[in-house]
Amino acid sequence: MSINATLLAQMVVFAILVWFTMKYVWPLLKQAMDERETRIADGLAAAEKGKHDLELAEKRAADVIREGKDKAQELLNQANQRANQVIEEAKTAARGEADKVLASARAQIDQERIEARERLRKEVSALAVAGAEQILRREVDARAHAEALDRLASQL
Length: 156
Fold this sequence. Notes:
The chain is mostly helical. It has helices spanning 3-138, 142-155. It has one domain.
């Protein structure tokens, strides 16, 4: 065989191989590559979406944390206000109780003062009667002594 015929036969076989590959093998390879490309693109899109979702979740988490801190601060402020209110109520109640005790003590002091005056008046009256008895034993002028006792009683 000559080199030209061999070369021509190889070219024909090569052309048949190219045609067979393009007709039957290439579509399967193309389909597999397209599927793989689609899967890779979907994976990249999912990764991008996941990255975006992660960013949104981080923002939401930061918002929730900030909101939680704000609520905690608000609750703390409310608790402090309530504590101050309770303290003020306790102070008011203590002042009221102190005023009651003070009023009671003053009333008791006034009562004891009145009782002491009454006892003192009784003692003075007893002394006056005793003095009058001694005076009456010496002198018997009842009018003069009665006037003196009246003046003494009115002065007390």
